[in-house]
Amino acid sequence: MKFIYPEGATPLAHEELQELIPPHITLQSELNLWEQNNILLGEQWALRQREILTDQFVQTLHYKMFDQTWKWAGIYRQTGKNIGIDWHFIPTEIRRLCDDVRYQIEHQSYDTLEIAVRFHHRLVWIHPFPNGNGRHARLMADLLLMQNNFPRFSWGQKQMKIGNLYETTPIRKLYIQALREADQHDYAALIKFAMS
Ligand SMILES: Nc1ncnc2c1ncn2[C@@H]1O[C@H](COP(=O)(O)OP(=O)(O)OP(=O)(O)O)[C@@H](O)[C@H]1O
Ligand SMILES: [Mg+2]
């Protein structure tokens, strides 16, 4: 199978390709559809949960989003990637992130939209899983918003005419550019993008 990676995506290692669960999938387009369906099931599960700011929820959500797709669903990566922290620190950093965000919400350290965007960025920055980090961290931010009685982010969907997030489209470029600004601690573009 030949995989085409959009800009800013994490390439799968060869061993990871062996870890695909559905045996009939041979095309990237088939995989995309299969994953999207699995993710919807995960989302339905997530909407019924109460406590989301725990390392256990972070892992279980990833599991529920990818459990019919990847054998490593819900398992933290144990390899280095071109993005993300040293994998040894993932469990500690996820716990710290959850604690920090709980504190930020309690004390309204930033407004809620900014807390959610910072949360999203720090989660993809940690890059806890071998794949699916972007989609998982977008849903985590959305769940945080909804728990605090905000509508979820649209993540560029209002600009649908210029593409989607999954391929190399102008929307994807805007998203990755906004993340790079967030890497430099400037969150304005990412907040704007998430609400666009
Ligand atoms: N410079 C960056 N800083 C922070 N996060 C980044 C940066 N570049 C890419 N990312 C994040 O990494 C994600 C890609 O990681 P991964 O492939 O694990 O997730 P994914 O859900 O499969 O992503 P996608 O479907 O968007 O490619 C991007 O969607 C984005 O959220
Ligand atoms: Mg990916």
How would you explain this protein's 3D organization?
By secondary structure, this protein is mostly helical. The protein contains eight helices and no strands. The chain has helices spanning 14-17, 28-46, 55-66, 90-107, 112-126, 133-147, 170-183, 188-194. The chain is globular and about 50 Å long. The structure holds adenosine-5'-triphosphate and magnesium ion.
Strand content: under 5%
Beta-strand segment tally: 0
Describe the global form: globular
Q: List each distinct ligand once.
A: adenosine-5'-triphosphate, magnesium ion
- Helical segment count: 8
- How far is the N terminus from the C terminus? 34 Å
Report the sheet with the most strands, covering strand number, pairing sense and barrel closure.
none
SSE order, as H and E?
A: HHHHHHHH
Structural class: mainly alpha
